[in-house]
Write a sequence for this structure.
């Protein structure tokens, strides 16, 4: 007999690495990843550096850029106070550049991640630590106990599954 060890409370996917994700009712999981998860990256156009909000202050605003996928799995982004824009596109690059204060571009990691007809540049994945990130509410509670003044919003940790 198997015992239940937890209940799934949240499901997330992050269409673009380092940007805000979208909460989901369901996710599709295969042997390598979650469908639609971490398919794009944001780069500084001056040097093609990929966004690193955890390491470089110039990227600290990046997690506030919202992302979602259309039913056809095409990326859409919105900067705070902005409208949803198809990405990658000239319009989305203008919006993220204006928001960040330097020339930036959203690029797919692989050609098949982009909408049909996309012929722009690709970018390399920053890292691929694990195909699925699971976070427990027990871990969040322990973190809160250790750092009571800190925020323990699960989105800070970018999990796919919160149990």
């Amino acid at each position: 007999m198997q015992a239940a060890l937890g209940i799934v409370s949240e499901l997330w996917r992050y269409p673009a690495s380092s940007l805000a994700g979208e909460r989901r009712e369901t996710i599709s999981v295969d042997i390598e990843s979650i469908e639609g998860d971490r398919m794009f990256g944001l780069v500084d156009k001056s040097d093609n550096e990929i966004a690193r909000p955890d390491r470089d202050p110039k990227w600290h605003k990046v997690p506030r850029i919202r992302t979602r996928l259309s039913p056809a799995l095409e990326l859409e982004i919105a900067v705070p106070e902005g409208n949803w824009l198809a990405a990658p596109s000239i319009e989305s690059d203008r919006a993220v550049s204006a928001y960040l204060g330097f020339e930036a571009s959203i690029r797919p990691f692989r050609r098949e991640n982009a909408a049909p007809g996309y012929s722009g540049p690709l970018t390399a994945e920053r890292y691929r630590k694990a195909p699925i990130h699971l976070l427990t509410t027990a871990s969040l509670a322990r973190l809160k106990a250790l750092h009571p003044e800190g925020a323990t919003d699960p989105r800070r940790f970018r999990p796919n599954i919160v149990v």
Remarks:
- The two ends are 21 Å apart (CA to CA).
